[in-house]
Amino acid sequence: xxxxQALKARQVLDSRGRPTVEVDAIAATGEVGRAIxxxxxxxxxxxxxxxxxxxxxxxxxxxxxxxxxxxxxTIAPAIVGMRLDDQxxxxxxxxxxxxxxxxxxxxxxxxxxxxxxxxxxxxAVHGEELYVHLNRLWRDRAAEARGEIPVEPSLPMPMVNMIxxxxxxxxxxxxxxxxxxxxxxxxxxxxxxxxxxxxxxxGTVLAKLGLESVLVGDEGGYxxxxxxxxxxxxxxxxxxxxxxxxxxxxxxxxxxxASTHFFDESTGTYKISDAGPQPLDAAGMVDLMAxxxxxxxxxxxxxxxxxxDWNGWRLLTERLGSKVQxxxxxxxxxxxxxxxxxxxxxxxxxxxxxxxxVGTLSETLDALLMARQHGYRPVVSARSGETEDATIADxxxxxxxxxxxxxxxxRSERLAKYNRLLRIEEFLGPxxxxxxxxxxx
Length: 441
Ligand code: 2PG
Ligand code: MG
Known about the structure:
By secondary structure, this protein is of the alpha/beta class. The chain contains 13 helices and 13 strands. The longest helix has 21 residues, at 188-208. The structure holds 2-phosphoglyceric acid and magnesium ion (MG).
């Protein structure tokens, strides 16, 4: 396999018009691999650090010129000449070069841009689709591990944002996403068509109620002002029914509570409007969510409790873990050390996988592998700030993750991934494996 001849880096803009890092990895044989780094808004405290310039005169301080410069002057000299297919060796070199615990020295955005661009370039040198190359890396990783690890490429079941709240839509609702999962779909293509139908129907239901049905949040979900969080579940259930689908049979609900962002650390309580003016403790939140699960066809709850509320997470998992998927996002931040703690304590039963929370492809594969070994269902996820980069679509297929969360079916930074999955479905042929409902356990 050929070596890296050069790295190029530049500042480009993401779906919120904020600067982000783009990297080109150029092979000695001329092939180019390109990656653009995503960016979150409701970020967890334990995520790898996104390096921003903090120069208020430019892009409101959000520029990434320093991260770009780190790729050019620190990373490139160390990485050029390394074998392109040595993803782990390259990622280890990146980690060592940064030398900090949170990739704060070079910036996780600089590091991730290089890590992903290398994978794209290696796929190009092989003349392969990215998911084929990533699948090889995944198989190699899985072969070193004990236990039954799924390695056949398969299309993930999407969980799709319908109504946006929290930090993604001006805090119109306390909770961040109300999502729909087309659990009755038998193929990815069919899933996507159901999703689009329900998304349109949500708009119609909102318009009928005289609510905002045009403006959308950062991930393309509708952003109406509703009198309660629970009202959003009702709207989506009504939309599912309006499409002639049966809630709970054909289409289910999921929710990203993103509760870290309404958690008050000083009192250890959660301020959520459904509970009235009194804030709730963790047990109160668990009761609230248990009530939602009873009243609505909810099959998945993400970040039901805050990022460091481990005791609360145990309680939540004891109470609801056998009935619904409980995803740790801010809780685990795609990092094996935190996932290990969760496994030990019995916190959550599923993990959100976001490449930029950890900063390299190899560490992302490590988190996916650890999740599989402990029966935690992985959900590969986009960030609220995205671009035309569709790497996560290939990653989800390559690692047979089973589920993917991209945002809504509006805005092209989202559709880049949904459409990429359609192309991969075609590559995989007429009986393209689709994770379907089974992905949810
Ligand atoms: C989340 C993500 C994606 P953000 O909380 O799961 O929806 O949001 O990228 O803003 O962290
Ligand atoms: Mg989340």
